[in-house]
Amino acid sequence: MKIGVIISSNDAETCWNALRYANFCLKQKDEVKIFFMGKGVEYQKLSTEKFNTIEQTEDFIKADGRIYACGSCIKSREQENSEMCPISTMKDMYDIIKESEKVVTF
């Protein structure tokens, strides 16, 4: 199954759970793409020992999950492009939604 995960929260626990869900889906042999937008692009700054969003993202990338992030949202927060938060476009989000069989938002 193709699953799209859209994360727009900057709540550490919410981001952590969204990433855990995406990793679980990959383990079920689903194709998963994550799109961070709005406050969601801040997820790396939220990482704590309890809600380790960075570790979850590293696991996701290692398992061949695909990550996208709204370029406008990144730039408005004066963040930079990175493997964990790559600058993407609304067209990328559109394609994820269009191609996915299920879309989950957090």
Question: What labels describe this entry?
Answer:
106 residues, alpha/beta, five-stranded parallel beta sheet, 22% strand
SS strand fraction: 15-25%
Question: How would you classify the helix and strand content by structural class?
Answer: alpha/beta
- What is the CATH superfamily label? DsrEFH-like
The CATH architecture category equals 3-Layer(aba) Sandwich
Which strands sit side by side, in order, in the main sheet?
4-3-2-1-5
| Number of E-state strands | 5
**How far from one another are the termini?**
19 Å
Q: Which residues sit in consecutive blocks of at least 5 with pLDDT less than 50?
A: none
Biggest β-sheet: count, sense, barrel?
Answer: 5 strands, parallel
CATH class category label: Alpha Beta
Gyration radius, in Å? 12 Å
Predict the CATH topology.
Hypothetical Protein Ychn, Chain: A
Task: Please tally the helical runs, counting DSSP H or I stretches of 4 or more residues.
Answer: 4
Order of helices and strands: EHEHEHEHE
* Global geometry: globular
